[in-house]
Amino acid sequence: MKPNAEFLSLPEEIQCNILSFLSCRDILCCTSVCKALRQTYISSSELQYIVELSGQRLLHVPNTDDVNIPVSERLQLLRDKAHAWFKIDAHSFKTVLLSENMYSDEAFVADGHIYSWDRAEDTAKIVPILPQPSQKPVNRDWSPGTLFHPNSRSIDVFMDPAQNLIATSNHETFYIDLKTLDSDNVHPKAAGPELILSLLPISEDYLLEIEEAQLKGFGRYIALRCSFVSYEEIWQLHIWDWQHSMTSNSVLMGTCFTPNPIDFCFLGNDRLLVVAEELKLYSIEDMSQTPQLLARFSMPVPFLDAQCFLPIDHTEHSSPQTQAQQTMYSSDPQNRLLCILAEATHVYIISTRIFFNLDGRAAAIPVPWECWGPSNTRIFAHWDAYRVHVFGNRVLRATPIGTSASSLLTKFALHMMDFSPLAVTNRRDLGRVVKEPSTIVMHLDDLIDRPAESVTTSLSYVEVMLNNKWFGSNDSELVDLWVDKDRIYLLKRKRDHEAVGSVHDYGIGNSELEVIHV
């Protein structure tokens, strides 16, 4: 008897159990070459659930299964949730009223909270967004002089509600304070009350002054990117394992002539991506040494300024109270979308899978854009008035559609795009499937002596416009937006006509957050 016949002679439940140890790709390969295995797959909710998770670029979260919910029902809930993103009712939302000082240049939504920091006013605030009964919300307001040491000049603030963490840094002291968000106590998981900057650059006569900086974090990592005042732009990136050490030997350094020389993001627990004239991928698994360069990726055109965004599920780093609210799955860190804003003219949507499938590439030689970029990227025009946010494999964009005759304010249309492989199936004939390549003409900066270039990209997606709703009116304007696995958030700034006495003049009133639940 042939080996495959022996396998097919096994009871169906045993076949399913064996197949469940395979990857999604291998399961589909088996079922595509054997009619009997195809029938086994069709009759197995467990195997379909595995494939559905992979096709939506999701991972099962251990120890979150509800034994009272059959796998078949979980599978249907997963498919229905994916389909719900294509029929969102943008007119059905809840409004969270915010105080005037919630609007600033530094506003973020994360883990069921919105928080902001006003650098000029030295104030910060965090408030919960429609908290669930099981949630432990944080609601705090920091007045001037309470975030930092008295008479100090602030650099940046980072908040992580999932870990009840706030990190602050300032110009006068070369360290970062670590405290709990809901109090002024030292964070109980921190190795100490502060992180110390080491290996700082020194000129011939003095220690250089920090000119600009940014704090980011993920799980046990906190990183500070700072640039220094000098005849050439010197930048450093310090990375700490804040739960185990107050100092860091994991430091990157370079020079550049632009005010914002680099940006960076964490790709998960062991990888860091630095965005500059090219993309550089580093391993930060060994925090006792300088990050190890794994690969370099060329971009189609050089850019002088770039910002990158990669929101990541914090399920594994959340407190027990937060974990109790989590769903049974989270986005796959190796198959998410990275968003890069390039010089406020274009936005790159890049699949992170390219940063995990290195295939023995040599780190010293940049991978040409033509070899990695077009099939893993989609580029869109993105001017100052546009808004964009990503989460998992979804992109939310607000595009201007002109102004009304009686208003100087821009109105927006909202577009939701799903880049996951199963988006075409789960849309159920809703939305627009985009598989054909698109070409963008990029006009380079005047400082770069190169002609404009046409760049073609082809990462597939499904797009839907949210009810053709226009956002923006005489009474409010769309300031920013965010998306996560369950909600869309639209930050709108109210206009106070009475304060200035004219419908064409606007005073700044309170802000409000429209929350659309999916």
Care to describe what's here?
- The termini are far apart.
- The strands form nine sheets. The chain has a five-stranded antiparallel sheet, with no helix packed on it.
- 38% of the residues are buried.
- It contains nine helices and 33 strands.
- Helices cover 14% and strands 39% of the residues.
- The protein is mainly beta.
Describe the structure in brief.
With 518 residues, the protein is mainly beta. It is built from nine helices and 33 strands.
Mean pLDDT: 83
What would you call the shape? globular
Fraction of residues in helices? 10-25%
Helical stretch count? Answer: 9
Radius of gyration: 25 Å
Task: Tell me the layout of helices and strands.
Elements: H1 3-8, H2 12-19, H3 24-33, H4 35-42, H5 45-55, E1 58-60, H6 71-84, E2 94-98, E3 106-110, E4 113-118, E5 123-128, E6 140-142, E7 154-160, E8 165-170, E9 175-180, E10 194-196, E11 210-218, E12 221-228, E13 233-241, E14 250-256, E15 263-266, E16 271-275, E17 279-283, E18 292-297, E19 306-309, H7 320-323, E20 329-331, E21 337-342, E22 346-351, H8 369-376, E23 377-381, E24 387-391, E25 394-403, E26 410-418, H9 423-426, E27 432-434, E28 438-442, E29 453-457, E30 461-471, E31 476-483, E32 487-496, E33 507-517
Antiparallel strand pairs: 1-20, 2-33, 3-4, 4-5, 5-6, 7-8, 8-9, 9-10, 11-12, 12-13, 13-14, 15-16, 16-17, 17-18, 19-21, 21-22, 22-23, 24-25, 25-26, 26-30, 27-30, 28-29, 31-32, 32-33
Helix pairs in contact: 3-4, 3-5, 5-6
